[in-house]
Structure to design on (303 residues):
């Protein structure tokens, strides 16, 4: 279920604690390059998100501690999906900690995302851990009864994480 | 972050499913029911728990739509309902797909960056090298 390409690039999704979800993947490149791809808007826009029918509308990033970022995608029928937050820790090329909050905020608080870049023999392992606010978030999501397309995706993620957290 | 449509998956339903699955006793009950119908008494047997405690778990599973009970009024055998589990799995699969697709594009971008690596992009590794001796 997690296999992608040959060469040990399998993507892993795990739940290391009751409020976290963790995504692990390795890349055949030194971590400085992976870091650049994560922190330079012109590079980030080329790989993150952007599913068929959706394109980048805003990609602003002030990559320094205390700096903010804002990402917006535009989709069919003028639909928009945006999120933003703050860079809490910027330690090139090994560690990036950001807060993240979607425009359509059905849940209180922000999620905190930590991306760790580890290099070994010229390959980089990327470990992304998202930590969520829990109980209240889940309740808000359930009460909102949000429906429809993409919103559902975001809600579902929060719902899952909140569920695990509240269990 | 995954801008994808999620069809008819409802958050409340996914929520109920994942909450129900978060408990080891309930997972064990589902595993037992995967082998066939069972009464509350039969389900309670392998656990050091009262039938009342088991019934509580069954209620959670039932509310999540993960199990149902048969018509036999006396025995009320419980049986597994596969659809919500399949939906939960589908959701996880899409979540995984979002990252796999993004990271697949990142692989391609990194290959391109390696080929055209400038001193700025590849840091210390390239600073002392002349052009033509760049990595790849």
């Amino acid at each position: 279920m997690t296999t992608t390409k040959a060469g040990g690039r399998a993507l892993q999704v795990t739940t290391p604690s009751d409020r976290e979800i963790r995504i692990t993947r390795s890349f055949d490149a030194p971590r400085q390059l992976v870091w650049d791809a994560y922190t330079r808007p012109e590079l980030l826009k080329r790989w993150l998100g952007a599913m068929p029918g959706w394109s980048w509308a805003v990609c602003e990033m002030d990559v320094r501690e205390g700096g903010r970022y804002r990402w917006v995608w535009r989709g069919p029928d003028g639909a928009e999906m945006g999120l933003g937050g703050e860079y809490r820790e910027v330690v090139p090329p090994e560690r990036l900690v950001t807060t993240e909050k979607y425009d359509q905020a059905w849940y209180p608080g922000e999620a905190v995302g930590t991306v760790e870049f580890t290099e070994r023999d010229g390959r980089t392992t990327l470990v992304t851990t998202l930590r969520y606010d829990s109980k209240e978030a889940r309740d808000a999501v359930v009460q909102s009864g949000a429906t429809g397309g993409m919103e559902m995706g975001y809600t579902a993620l929060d719902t899952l994480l909140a569920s695990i957290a509240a269990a | 972050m995954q801008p994808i449509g999620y069809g008819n998956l409802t958050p409340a339903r996914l929520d109920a499913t994942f909450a129900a699955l978060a408990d080891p006793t309930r997972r064990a009950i589902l595993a037992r029911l995967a082998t066939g119908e069972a009464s509350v008494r039969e389900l309670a047997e392998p656990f050091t728990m009262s039938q009342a405690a088991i019934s509580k778990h069954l209620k959670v599973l039932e509310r999540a739509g993960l199990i149902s009970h048969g018509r036999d009024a006396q025995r009320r055998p419980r049986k597994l309902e596969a659809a919500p589990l399949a939906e939960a799995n589908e959701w996880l699969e899409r979540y995984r797909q979002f990252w796999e697709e993004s990271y697949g594009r990142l692989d391609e971008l990194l290959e391109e960056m390696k080929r055209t690596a400038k001193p700025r992009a590849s840091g210390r590794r390239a600073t002392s090298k002349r052009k033509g001796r760049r990595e790849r």
